[in-house]
Give the backbone structure.
Amino acid sequence: MKYKISKRFTSLTLCMGLICSTFPALLSVDNIHAQTALPIEQILAKLTPEQRKALKQLQTSDQSGLLLSPDVDLESEQPISVIVEFKTKPLKIAMLESQLQGKSLSLSSANQLVEESHNKFEKDASRILEQKQYKIRRSFKTAFNGVSMTLPGNQVKALLQSDTVKAVWSDAEVQLDLPSEMQVTYSSNMPSSLPFIGIDKLHQEGYTGKGIKVGVIDTGIDYNHPDLKDAYKGGYDFVDNDSDPMETTYDQWV
């Protein structure tokens, strides 16, 4: 049960994140005074099938009330952490849904609705809950509208007395059951290039390259590199006319 609740909330969060990934940074709430409405038609046109599916899931989601893990003690006076979801849709989700319904909702209007929901919840919390026993830890407004808070377990049910609250979720760490590591043995199926350049015929005649010195002309070499230092036997720098062919360093470039 605990896993299912955590999975549902994680899915909800991922859906919101997937949809809001279409919004460029310049469409943030910080630009509210400079821009009254988002080019929402352009954003909708760029939605991927996965993002449209996620938006549809959010529209049809009817989960509400106490969505807590079964191990939460609602009779205890000990503080617990919960995430409170508000009925008012988060800023960007509200604008997308409004456009899909053929309505118009400006950035300033959407932001005002979100701000009002937070202000009302704070007033309701101070009225419903016992003072100094709860604390709002973080506020979420863009992809998720609500707050995370701590309060005594025996006061959690009282949160539903606020008309602002849609659902109360457990604030818990979600862990995935990762599959066990498998030992996989790989073998190379690459065809040999020797026949294409005729080296196999040289090998048949006894020419293997043993004892032949190989010289490389390049812009330089880092002969201290662990893959090269054992093979490096010396070189010459034709630019500086010395026997140090070290690769050009960053300091030499600048």
Observations:
- The CA atoms of residues 30 and 111 lie 11 Å apart.
- Residues 193-254 form one domain.
